[in-house]
Amino acid sequence: xxxxxxxxxxxxPEGLATRRQLRAMGxxxxxxxxxxxxxxxxxxxxxxxxxxYRIDLARPVRPMTPARWAALERxxxxxxxxxxxxxxxxxxxxxxxxxxxxxxYPDTSAA
Length: 111
Hints:
By secondary structure, this protein is an alpha+beta fold. 24% of the residues lie in helices and 23% in strands.
């Protein structure tokens, strides 16, 4: 089994990029396998690892169609509705609370 080449932080060769770097160039990995790993050392913890992809094999980002925009709008609207009171909170409900702040902290909203 072949292992991936591992590069230190800021020492990756030209022609390789992370997902974020590809996205900034208007590209996506496009189904290719990971070409290498990038390690960023940290004190007293395991290093941070990022996967690198070949730029020459990357494909352009697919454009957003009107149907995809509509689906995104519906998904964002659903994340604003509180499951407890059923109201539109006006903001995305935090997953840590699972409900709007008025339902999560009823004592502070009455003040």
